[in-house]
Specification:
The chain is built from 25 helices and 19 strands. It is α/β, with parallel strands linked by helices and about 575 residues long. The chain has three domains: about 5-175, Thiamin diphosphate (ThDP)-binding fold, Pyr/PP domains (Rossmann fold); about 190-355, Rossmann fold (3-Layer(aba) Sandwich), CATH 3.40.50.1220; about 365-550, Thiamin diphosphate (ThDP)-binding fold, Pyr/PP domains (Rossmann fold), CATH 3.40.50.970. The strands form four sheets. It has a six-stranded parallel beta sheet with strand order 3-2-4-5-7-6, sandwiched between helices. Helix 18 (about 390-400) links the parallel strand 14 (about 385) and strand 15 (about 405-410). Helix 3 packs across helix 19 (about 420-430). Its EC number is 4.1.1.47.
Length: about 575
């Protein structure tokens, strides 16, 4: 066994786990780690803000299914990472954040940039640990990958005091390798019970959550649905788990991101098989309405998720892929492959009779028209990245998806600014993919400095900014309060010109103000992005007062109503 610098061992572990790119910012307290990176095959991309680094690692992880890595120094570097850790925890994304730290002997003396980042990070990680001895380094890193991947995936933070980083350890990479990750198998009795319930139901639905994508279980999902002819809905995190052009696709139910016909189909269902879904409040709305008239089977890899929001009629613990495979096998034993019945035809009727308009010709541009153009211009292989706000809600309502890991969205935490650094991670992971960011004007400004990263490293993608010059979602929520307060972002004289801003980064940009010009702008941006190997912006100026159709009709409310009560119910009729 050879004695080597312990940071070299750490980097050997990272490389052996299949990570080829890390995102970070060097600093004095993490330089031994960077010295080890220098001679490794791992590519380092220097971000402009540690939060941006975590989101880039997050995007890389979502696109690859592997563990993303972000690195920073001590003190504020770690605290800047907290939002990214929370985002990854909320959406079950495996990332590892590595932070530098002051010497162990100085930690109690309020040393420069010394903060107890482990205690700060514990609520937003699966595991936060400070390495106390150099000999622990390779084994802590190895365990970090196992924890990040295991069960419900999520983030880990490793804090490295500078004196620990300078140490050595006994390590031979030829004798080491990734730790096994358990893939929990379902109990056959539970699988049989689930199939019996599906066969007994008259109007069953399968609800595919983000867990189906994480588990790489899309094929198993399609096999089960096709054999039993059960329509499939998706959650926002599950978009891409089932192709939206499949006859069995049943839309999306929800309070915000939803389809009218998806809500209607859900209300008519009598049984829901939910796989890898959390029953988040933006999906369920009022639980009494959501649950009334139907039974639920809840499949999840994390046992404590079952019954957390409401008690299902049947809980099945297991990894989504073997669970769905076992259900498909059991279904094949129980019955021949079914033909489309009355229920499938009814869902098709709802789809045809309850569409939303997206063919508006008006100026200012109505937001649905933007998503119509995106759907028609870009093919199914395009990866879309979007964050939080009205533009995300419109995206969830109107954008069509066909493939897993091709529609990436920060679902539960919803940090503004996520989309640009996440797109950097996605494009770094898959250089040959067409990557399109759908952003709002305000969200773009949160981490717009990361455009410099994409420009520096020639990471090309297209940014489609839906600009309503408002904090649109907050303005819409303020309506029942009869106010329009602190949400105006009008960029008149002295405001931000996003086209000029992109020019300052050395990147092309174009502003669009008429619906007929959107298609040409997308074609121009796509070509320029690849030709110049740069991010390119298409800023689409949309109607300022446009609202998203969600929950109760907010426009119709004239009297004050407390916001928690306002958002507690779904307007199923849309």
């Amino acid at each position: 066994m050879n004695r080597v610098p312990c940071m070299r061992a750490a980097v050997e572990v990272i490389a052996s786990e299949g990570v080829d790119t890390v995102f970070g910012i060097p600093g004095a307290a993490i330089l031994p780690f960077y010295a080890a990176l220098l001679d490794s095959p791992i590519r380092h991309i220097t971000v402009r803000h540690e939060e941006g680094g975590t989101h880039a690692a997050d995007g890389w992880a979502r696109a690859t299914g592997n563990v993303g890595i972000c690195v920073g120094t001590s003190g504020p570097a770690g605290t800047n990472m907290i939002t990214g850790l929370y985002t990854a925890l909320a959406d079950s994304i495996p990332i590892i954040c590595v932070t530098g730290q002051a010497e162990r002997a100085k930690l109690h003396q309020e040393a420069f940039q010394a903060v107890d980042i482990v205690e700060i990070a514990k609520p937003v990680t699966k595991w936060a640990v400070q390495v106390k001895e150099s000999a622990q380094v390779p084994w802590v890193f190895r365990e970090a990958f196992r924890v990040a991947r295991s069960g419900r995936p999520g983030p880990v933070l490793i804090d490295l005091p500078i004196d620990v980083q300078r140490g050595t350890c006994l390590y031979d990479p030829a004798l080491d390798g990734p730790l096994p990750v358990e893939v929990p198998q379902p109990r056959q009795q539970a699988v049989q019970a689930a199939i019996e319930m599906l066969l007994a139901a008259e109007r069953p639905l399968i609800l595919a959550g983000g867990g189906v994508i994480i588990a790489e279980a899309a094929d198993e999902l399609r096999a089960l649905a096709a054999h039993l002819q059960v329509p499939v809905q998706v959650t926002l995190m599950g978009k891409g788990a089932f192709p939206e052009d499949d006859p069995l696709f049943a839309g999306m139910a929800g309070l915000q991101t939803q389809t009218r016909w998806g809500n209607a189909a859900f209300l008519e269902s009598d049984l829901v098989l939910a796989v890898g879904a959390r029953f988040g409040d933006r999906h369920t709305g009022d639980l009494e309405t959501y649950r009334r008239g139907r039974r639920f089977i809840h499949v999840d890899i994390e046992p404590t998720q079952i019954g957390k929001v409401f008690e299902p009629d049947l809980g099945v613990v297991g990894h989504a892929r073997p669970v769905l495979a076992a259900m498909a096998a059991e279904a094949q034993v129980r019955t021949r492959r079914r033909k489309p019945g009355k229920w499938v035809k009814r869902v098709g009727e709802l789809r045809r009779s309850l569409p939303r308009r997206d063919d508006f010709e008006e100026v200012p541009i109505k937001p649905p028209r933007v998503y119509r153009e995106l759907n028609e211009f870009y093919g199914p292989e395009t990866t879309f990245v979007t964050a939080i706000g009205l533009y995300q809600i419109w995206s969830g309502q109107f954008q069509r998806t066909y493939l897993p890991r091709h529609y990436l969205v920060c679902g539960q935490a919803g940090p503004l600014g996520w989309e640009v650094p996440a797109a950097i991670g996605v494009k770094t992971a898959h250089p040959d993919r067409q990557v399109v960011v759908v952003a709002g004007d305000y969200s773009f400004q949160f981490l717009m400095e990361e455009i410099a990263v994409a420009a520096q490293y020639n990471i090309p993608f297209v940014i489609v900014m839906v600009n309503n010059e408002y904090l649109g979602l907050i303005r819409q929520a303020e309506i029942p309060y009869d106010m329009n307060y602190a949400v105006d972002l009008h960029y008149g004289e002295g405001g931000i010109d996003h086209v000029k801003l992109m020019d300052a980064f050395g990147c092309p940009a174009r502003r669009v103000e008429a619906p007929g010009d959107i298609r040409d702008a997308l074609a121009w941006a796509t070509a320029e992005s690849e030709r110049q190997r740069l991010p390119v912006l298409v800023e689409v100026m949309v109607e300022r007062e446009a609202n998203a159709a969600m929950g109760p009709s907010l426009d119709a409310i004239k009297e004050f109503e407390p916001l928690p009560e306002l958002v507690s119910a779904i307007d199923w009729s849309d």
